[in-house]
Amino acid sequence: VATVPLLWIIPLSLYLVSFIVAFDHPRWYSRTFHCVATVLVLLLVANYEDSLDHLSTALNFLGGYSGDEAFKLWRSMPLYCIVAFAGLFLVCLVCHCELAALKPPPRHLTAFFLTMSAGGALGGIFCNLVAPYIFVTFFELPLAILAAVAVAFVFLLMAARQWRWPGAMPVVAVAGAAALLLVAYGQIGLPQGNDPQADRIVLHRARNFYGLVSVEHRSRNEPEYTNFAFRSGHIIHGRQYADPARRNDTNIAYWGPGTGSRKAMEHVAKRPGCRIGIVGLGIGTLAGFAKPDDYVRMYEINPEVVAIAKQYFHFLADCPAKQDIVLGDARLQLERELRDTGSHQFDVLCLDAFSGDAVPTHLLTDEAFALYKQHLADDGIIVVNITNTYLDLYPVVKKLAEKHGLKHTRVFSPGSGGLTYRTYFVLLTNDESFLLATPETIAELPESFRKQRDVPLWTDRYHNLFQVLQ
Which residues, including other chains, have CB under 8 Å from residue 2's CB and lie 6 or more apart? Predict the structure, then answer.
C-alpha cells in the first residue's frame, strides 16, 4: 500500500459511521441480513484474486476486451477498494449493532462505555505492540477475517432460533463451517510439510515496524540458476548466486548488462578513489562494483535488512573498499552529515528505494534533490532506480532534474532472462562525457510508460501518487 496522505480517513470514517448507525436506532440493523452480507463480502475478500479473475473475465466478455486488459489497475484497484471497505464497514456494523443491543439501563452506561473503550485499547495494543513480536508475517489479518466470519455465524445461529424452519440451526452450522474453511483456504492455504527437494525454501523471515522481509533459497533444482533472494514484502530486492565461484557476479537482478546502474558504476569506476553513496542497502550488490581504493557509504532505514545483508549474502563481506553503513532515514542522515562534516562529494549517488509498492516520496522532492546535489561532486551522477510495476516516476524525476540544473538520460532494459530483471533508470548529471557515452535507451519501454505526463514539482508540501499511477 503506497503511502498516500490522509488515506486512513476512509477506514476511520467507516468505523465511526458504523458507531453512529448502531447507536442511533435498532431499525437500521437486521441481524440475518447484515450477518449474511458480512460473510459473503468476507468470502470475496479472502479469495479476492480468484474472484477478481472471474469478474475480470466477465467484464472482458461484456466489454469486448482481450488479453491482459482484465488486469488493468484502473479496473482492479477500485474493485478491491469497494470490496475491502465494504467488508470493513459490515464487520464494524455487525459488532457495534450487537454491542448497542446489549446497552444496559442508564445507571450502568458509564461502565458499559468504559468497557467498550478498554476493548478497543486492548485491540490496538495487540495489533501494534504484541502482534509484531509473536508473528513473523501479518498473520493477524487472516485471523481477524476468520474471527469476523465466526462471529457473524454465531449471531446467525442466534437468529436461526427464531426462524420457523426447524432445520435452520443445522444448515447455518454447516454453512458456517464451510465458510470458515473457504476463508482459511483463501487466506492461509493448505497445510504444507517441509519438502527437502523443494525448488524454493524460506531460510529466514522477520517482521518489524518497516514490514515483512525474508530470504529464500530459490531454483535449488537448477544448478545454473541456484540463488539466494531477498524479499521485502512480495518484491525481490536482490539476488546472489549460491555457487561460491559466482557469488561476486553482479550481473544479476537489477544490475545486469546494459542497465542504467551498471553503466553509471562502470563509468565512475575509471576514477581513482571513487566515492559511492547508496540509498537503500538491499543485499549490498552495488558494493560489489567498488575497487580497493574506493569508499562506499550506504544508508538503510531497516535494521533487519542490514542483518540479512551481512548474514545471508556476501557482497558486503567481499567488498574490497572501505565501507560504512548508516542506519536511519537516508535524507535525515544526509542532512545531519552535511551540517556536521560537510559534503561527501559522491562520484555516484544511487537512489534505490522506489521499486517497491510503498514509495518513500520524501526522497523524491525538491528539497531532497537540493540536498543530494550538495553531496554530489561536480561531475557526479545521481542514479534513480524508477523500476516499478504501477508507478511512472520519470515525470517526477525529470521535473526535479530541470529544477536543479541537471541533465539526464534514461536507460530501460527488458532483462536478458535468467536472473536479470526488467529495469528502468534515470541518470542525472552534468558530466558530458557520460551523457555522450550513455544515450537514451527506451526503444523497448512498455507503451504504458510512454504516456506524456506533466506533473507539478514534488515538494515536501506537495506530491501526488495518483498522477503517476499506471
Answer: 357, 358, 359, 391, 465
Q: Which one-letter amino acid corresponds to residue 172? A: V
Query: Of 314, 318, 268, 274, whose CA–CA distance to 293 is shortest?
Result: 274
Q: Which of 318, 52, 95, 276 is nearest to 186 (CA)?
A: 52
CB of 331 closer than 8 Å to CB of 361: no
Three cell numbers, residue 164? 420457523
Range with the lowest mean pLDDT among 76-90, 212-226, 267-281, 420-434?
76-90
Starting from the edge strand earliest in sequence, which strands make up the sheet with 407-413, in order?
Answer: 322-327, 295-300, 275-279, 346-351, 376-385, 423-429, 407-413
Give residue-wise pLDDT tens across range 425-439.
999 999 999 999 999
Closest CA to 302 of 371, 214, 376, 217: 214
**Among 276, 265, 270, 253, residue whose Cα is nearest residue 413:** 253
**Model-level pTM?**
0.84
Distance CA 455, CA 468 (A): 8
Q: Give the DSSP per-residue string, 172-199.
A: HHHHHHHHHHHHHHHHT-S-----TT-S
Region of 393 on the Ramachandran plot (φ > 0 left; ψ -120 to 50 alpha; else beta) = alpha
Say how far apart CA 59 and CA 75 lie, in whole Å: 10
Q: Which long-range contacts (CB under 8 A, 24 or more apart) does 8-11 make?
A: 10/85, 11/85, 11/88
Confidence band for 78, pLDDT divided at 50, 70 and 90: confident
Using alpha carbons, select from 54, 385, 87 the residue that is nearest to residue 238: 385
| 99 Cβ neighbours under 8 A, 6+ residues apart | 22, 116
First to last CA, the chain: 15
Q: Contact at 8 Å (CB) between 403 and 458?
A: no
For 378-418, write each residue's pLDDT tens digit.
999 999 999 988 889 999 999 999 999 999 999 999 887 77
